[in-house]
């Protein structure tokens, strides 16, 4: 930027004092300072926006690299799983080739626990019944107590008995 030394600033101040005058100089100086502050804030905002866009671009590059690495790992895992599955199927078919088709061992699918002892059926699902008589409200209980909202229903006689003075005084 422009290099302003003390001598240049003193010269500018002396010329401004002569041209503007001593009465209007403080107001003009405040206005100039105000505009310089606005300009500095604008420049800092622009710098911050540029820095944010640069960081966003860097994050997008890192994201793309991470996604491509994740895809490569996923593809390699699928290849390995497929290869192991094929090898297992091949060795299983070779191992069971000499066995008879009906075996007396544990059932493969769907047997009961009496036949093989290893299969237990999942428990049956019981639908949860909601009590529709209870009103479920989004207002917390502490707020109702603080606001004086009645949460329990009382009969008129019970309410009168509750608020009756205890010193034995009865109004006539």
TrEMBL record:
The UniProt record lists the keyword Membrane: yes
Keywords linked to the UniProt accession: Cell inner membrane, Cell membrane, Membrane, Protein transport, Translocation, Transmembrane, Transmembrane helix, Transport
Assembly and binders: The Tat system comprises two distinct complexes: a TatABC complex, containing multiple copies of TatA, TatB and TatC subunits, and a separate TatA complex, containing only TatA subunits. Substrates initially bind to the TatABC complex, which probably triggers association of the separate TatA complex to form the active translocon.
GO biological process, one term: protein transport by the Tat complex
Topology class, membrane: Single-pass membrane protein
Any one of the GO CC terms: TAT protein transport complex
Principal place of residence: membrane
Role according to the record: Part of the twin-arginine translocation (Tat) system that transports large folded proteins containing a characteristic twin-arginine motif in their signal peptide across membranes. Together with TatC, TatB is part of a receptor directly interacting with Tat signal peptides. TatB may form an oligomeric binding site that transiently accommodates folded Tat precursor proteins before their translocation.
Annotated region described as Disordered, given as residue ranges: 92-125, 145-172
InterPro entries xrefs: TatA/B/E, TatB
Compartments, record wording: Cell membrane; Membrane
Source organism, top-level taxon: Bacteria
Family affiliation: Belongs to the TatB family.
Encoding gene, per UniProt annotation: tatB
Protein name: Sec-independent protein translocase protein TatB
Low complexity: bias regions: 93-112
Signal peptide: none
GO molecular function: protein transmembrane transporter activity
